[in-house]
Amino acid sequence: MTRTNKYWNDRFTLLTESLLKKGERYYQYLEIEYKRAISSIQKDLRDFYGRYGEDISYADTKKLLTPQELREFKLNMGDYMDVADRERISRLHSLQYQIRQQIDIISATRLKGLTRLSEELIRESYYRSIYEVQKGFGIGDTFTVLDTRTVESIIAKPWVPDGSNFSERVWRDREVLMNELQKELAQSFIRGDGPDMAIRNISKKMEVSKRAAGRLVMTESAFFANESRARAFKELGVEEYQFLATLDMRTSDICQDMDLRIFKLSEREIGVNWPPLHVWCRSTVVPCFEGNIKQRWARDPKTGKGYYVPGDMKYKDWYKEHVV
C-alpha cells in the first residue's frame, strides 16, 4: 500500500495535536490550583492585616508572636517544615511561612502532575507513531516495548541549554517565586501599603508564576511527544523525516523557515531541526520513506514475515494485541 506525503502529514499532525491537548488540559487543571493558592494567600494577608492593623509598620512586623499566637500558628501549620520546633517566630516570618506552604503545595502539584503527564505522552507518542505507520502500510513488525527505565531516562533527560530537566526547573521556579514574594512582602510593609495594595502586588507575582508554569507544561509536552517519536522512528527504520510547522498567525518565524525541510534522523538536534524549537512550539515531524518498508519488514530474518495490520484497526485493539 502506497501512501502520499499528505497522508502521513495529516496522520502525524492529528497525533501531535491530540498529544498537546493533553498538556493543555493539565495546564487548565493547574490554573485552578493556582487560583486556590492565590485565594489562600490573599486570605492569609487579610487575616494578618486584620489582626495587626492596616497601618502596621515594618518594625511591628518584626515583633515576635505572643505565646498564644505561636501556639495557634503551630497548630495551623501542622508538621510543615520545622515550625513545630521553633520557639521564636516573628509576625512577618509567620506570614512568610504561610505563603511558603502554599508555594510548596503548588510546586509539588506541578512536579507530580507533569511527571504523570510526561509518562503518558512518552508512551502514547511512541506507540501511536508505530501504530500509524503500521496501519498506513497494512503490515507490521515486532518492536521494542518501552520499559519503566527507558521512560524515566527520557523524563530525566536535560535538553535545554542550561542543562536542567523539568524537575529541576520546577524547583528552581519555586525558589525564585518564594524569594520574589518575600521581597515584595517586606517592601510592602516598608512602603506602608495597605492590604488591598499588598494583595494586588503579591497576586501579580503569582500570575507571572502561573504563566511560566504554562510555558513549561506546553514546551515539555512538545519535547516528550517528539522525543518519544524519535525512538519510534528509529524502531521503524525511518532514516529521514520532514519538519512540519503549524502554520497560522501564531507560528514563529523560525518554524515557518523550517517548514517542509527534510533531515536525516541521525542528524536531528533538539531546538535546531527537531521540535520544540522554542517555548510554546507546536511544530511536529513526519517520517519520510524511501523504498518499500513493507518488504524490509517481511525480509527481516529475525522476525520473519511480520504481521497484517488492517487499515480500519483501532488503536486500542492494536495496543492490546502488540503491546499488552
Structure description:
The protein is elongated. The chain has 324 residues and is mainly alpha-helical. It has one domain (5-322). Strands 3-2-4 form a three-stranded antiparallel sheet. It has a two-stranded antiparallel sheet with strand order 1-5. The model has no long low-confidence stretch (mean pLDDT 91). The longest helix is centred in the first third of the chain and has 48 residues, at 5-52. It contains ten helices and five strands; from the N terminus they run ααααβαααβαββαβα.
Descriptive tags:
324 residues, mainly alpha, 3-stranded antiparallel β-sheet, two-stranded antiparallel sheet, 10 helices, 64% helix, elongated
In terms of DSSP E residues, the strand content is: 5-15%
Q: Gyration radius, to the nearest Å? A: 26 Å
Order of helices and strands: HHHHEHHHEHEEHEH
Rounded mean pLDDT is 91
Shape: elongated
Structural class: mainly alpha
Give the strand tally: 5
Domain module count: 1
Share in helix: 55-70%
Identify the quaternary structure here. single chain
Count of discrete alpha- or pi-helical segments spanning 4 or more residues: 10
**Can you tell me the residue ranges where pLDDT is under 50 for at least 5 consecutive residues?**
none
The major pleated sheet works out as: 3 strands, antiparallel
Biggest sheet: strands side by side, in what order?
Answer: 3-2-4
Distance between the termini: 27 Å
Indicate the topology:
Elements: H1 5-52, H2 58-61, H3 67-77, H4 91-137, E1 139-140, H5 148-156, H6 166-191, H7 195-236, E2 240-244, H8 253-258, E3 262-264, E4 284-288, H9 293-299, E5 307-308, H10 315-322
Antiparallel strand pairs: 1-5, 2-3, 2-4
Helix pairs in contact: 1-4, 1-7, 4-5, 4-6, 4-7, 6-7
